[in-house]
Structures are given as structure tokens and as C-alpha cells.
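Lab intake sheet, docking and co-folding queue.

SAMPLE TYPE: protein with bound small molecule
LIGAND NAME: zinc ion
LIGAND FORMAT: SMILES
REQUESTED OUTPUT: full 3D complex as C-alpha cells
PRIORITY: normal
SUBMITTED BY: R.K., bench team

The fields below were copied directly from the construct record.
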Amino acid sequence: MLVNMREMLADARKNGYAVGMFDVSDLEMIRAVVGEAEALNSPVILGALWPDLENGRLPYWAVLARKAAEEARVPVCLHLDHALKIEQVRAAIEAGFTSVMLDASAAPFGENIRLSAEVVQSVRGKNITVEAELGHVGNGWVGSGEGAAGPDALTEPGSVREFLEKTRVDALAVSIGTAHGVYIKAPRLDIPRLREIAAAAGEVPLVLHGGSGTPADQLREAITNGITKVNIYSELLTAWNTALAEELKKQPHMAVWPAVLRKNPDAAMREVIRQKIRFFGSSGRA
Ligand SMILES: [Zn+2]
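RESULT FIELD (auto-filled):
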């Protein structure tokens, strides 16, 4: 069933688990995420990043994801991940997304509040949830593009309450030591800071970006201390691309059907999704 992320994250917050958001770029990735969530009876969030939506792809992505969500036996949310412009948010709302994030985290505090509040205003009465980011999660490696707007800045617990009161966002992405992309050195999460942020945020669910590659023990601690949505993309891409490289090596010629070629890569990606959902603790929570 198609939902926004309000109820699923409220339940996760109350019961101490996290829901996975998996960024997906095509039909088979959408089906992999929804299929594995169904198999584990878990709620799930399908995420989309702008590079996967541009050049006219957005409405196609939305139609495919909506169909998969509507037919799913588990709650599925369609979330716009890291929009950098309000026009991108409007386009996603128009296309049928049920949740949006405008990332103004590289802007000054007051500007971040103003832009995030504007997005909340724009979805009023529409049953769409809004995520904002306070502090700035940067990149683990150079050149990924996403989040490249500014240097890392950890979330200041003292600014959380004011931000939430003035914006009324439904979920808050925090910066506690993770990074987007592939880590060049292992991250060290600031769990005491997360505890302070969670205390200040009250009921508002917290989001961890850069979940891919974060060591399991630290991820577990983050979930225990208030993280209720974990974003994953790079680990899916690494699994898929590695398996694809193997498949290509096996081909006697290159006239192979895409559906055949991607069978093993899709299976490798599904394995990662399955492991993540189990680890996050959302199995059986649908
Ligand atoms: Zn992110």
C-alpha cells in the first residue's frame, strides 16, 4: 500500500527499530526493494535522487514506483531524496511522491529554516511528509555530486528544537559523523551528540544519511539511540556493479539480453536489501 512516512516512522521511533530507505534508479531496483520488503513483511521507503530523475525521467520513475507501492502487501513510501531546488519538490509532488526532502543543509541556519518551512507549507493538506537536514552530511569520497554543496558540519543539539518548531518538518536528517558514498576511512559516529539531538527532537523521527558502509556496531547504536530511517544506496550499487562486471566477463559475445545479464546482479542487490531490512529490525512490522 502506498503511504507517506509519518506512521511508519512513528512506529519505528516508539519501538526502537529503523525503516530502510533504498534509493532506486529503475524498475528492477524498485521491484527488488518492494519484493524483499514483502518477503520480510517490512515497511519500506523507495528513494529517488535527482540524477536518477532528470532528463524527463521523473514521471516514469513515479508511475513505476506508485504501481509497485499500490500493489504491495506492505506499506511503501515514495520519497524524493535530496532535492536541491523547490522546483524539484513541486515536480515530485505533481508526479505523486508521498514524501519529499529539500536539502538546504549547506545554507545558513535561518535560510535552512525558511526553505524547509516553505516546503512544509507547500504540502499542507496533501498527506505528504517532509524531511529536512540540519547540520551537513558531506561525501565519503570526492566527486559523487550528491551533498557536494558544502563541508561537513555536525548537527548542533542546541539548534534542534528551534528548527523543528519553526519548520514543522516530519523527519530530521542529522549529521553525526556519517558521509555519503563510499568511505575512504571508517566513520566514527558521535553517539552522545545523537542522544542530545534525540532528546531535543522529542517525537520527531531522526534520519541517518550515508548508511552504506557504516560499521554494524555503530549503526546498531545509532538505531538504539533514536535513528528511525537509514538511507542506503552505495551498497546496492557496489553489489550490483560488481556482479555485473563478473557477468560481462563470462559472455562469449556481447549480444546478451539485459534481463539475462542482470539476473545475478539483481540477486546480489536483493541480498543486500534483505540483510539491511533484517538488521534495521523492521521485519514483521508491516
Ligand atoms: Zn543523503
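REVIEWER NOTE: The beta strands are 2-3, 19-23, 44-49, 76-83, 99-102, 129-134, 171-174, 206-208, 227-232.
SIGN-OFF: pending second check by T.M.
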